[in-house]
Amino acid sequence: MDGKEYNSEEEFLKDYDSSVFEKLSMTADILIMSVSSEETGNYRKLTEKKFSILLVKRDNYPFKDKWCLPGGFIGIDETLDDAAKRILKNETNLKNIYIEQLYTFSDVKRDPRMRVVSTSYMALVDKNRLNDKLSKNASWFNVFMIEDEKSYHVTLDNGSEEIKFVVTKTLRDLTTDRYDFKIAKNDKLAFDHPLVIISGLERLKNKIEYTDIVFNMMPEYFTLGELQQVYEVILNKKLLDPAFRRIIANKVEKTSKMKTGGGHRPSALFKYKRKSNE
User: What was the pLDDT predicted at 32?
Assistant: First the structure.
């Protein structure tokens, strides 16, 4: 075809031979995140907020019996977004939850089977309000993370099994504060999914500062104390009350409802203040 001249696009496409190009496959992997309430055992304290992600256990090679993010191959007649929604339903039995494209992972050796490029998504849900029953091989893991200047030390715990990994970070661009991530330790997660998890956690931390994305993880009604707990567990740090109130000042509205019981004083309930164009 090189050097040959064509009179029309139709003539060119008729002569086009795609077999001269090497093939690659594409997958979609979905990081599903939730902040939910768990009882503390002390009726005088607020229920404790736990940050968790959903993993599925692989029943086929490669990485048989290891945990991974829900994922799958993209069909030849699917868009990325359509494939992500299908995979979400098939792998976890979840549907109609917030989902957005996260990042594309293209390391040449990320999949031992073949050349596979993965576009990752992050999804947000309040798992206390889920009506869908999870697939039998899916499980929620609470996330515990220690971050320093050079690395993330992460422990995932579902109550019966513990997964640990370490991801290092190197500043890529000082002007944009962007980092390159690399897996330093990992023995129980399949593929490069520690990188997807860290990328998603960082995206969520950044977005709750300037968007309303966090309310996809909240019940319809909540106290300001409960909302502050959610911010703190995502940001992995305590917030001063005045600073927190400034962050959420234009995002919530007070209702006439009150939360009572539990050994503490009644508290006003708030709800998300939707924008006029929503």
Answer: 94
Give the whole-angstrom CA distance, residue 80 versus residue 121: 10
pLDDT in tens, 202-214: 999 999 988 999 9
pLDDT grade, residue 186 (50/70/90)?
A: very high
Q: How confident is the model at residue 177 (pLDDT cuts 50, 70, 90)?
A: low
Backbone phi, psi, residue 227, to 5°: -65, -40
Regarding whether 163 and 75 lie in a shared domain, the answer is yes
Burial class (CB in 10 A: 0-12, 13-18, 19+), 7: exposed
In whole angstroms, what is the distance from residue 118 CA to residue 80 CA? Answer: 10
Confidence of residue 54 (pLDDT cuts 50, 70, 90): very high
61 and 101 fall within a common domain: yes
Q: How many domains does the chain have?
A: 2
H helices then E strands: how many in the chain? Answer: 5, 12
**Are residues 139 and 160 in contact, defined by beta-carbon separation less than 8 angstroms?**
no
| Alpha helix ranges (H) inside 93-248 | 193-210, 224-235, 241-248
Separation CA 119–CA 107 (nearest Å): 12
Residues contacting residue 243 through CB under 8 Å, at least 6 positions apart: none
Rounded Cα distance between 32 and 160, Å, is 20
Same domain, 104 and 56: yes
H-state helical runs in the chain: 9-15, 80-92, 193-210, 224-235, 241-248
* pTM, entire model: 0.86
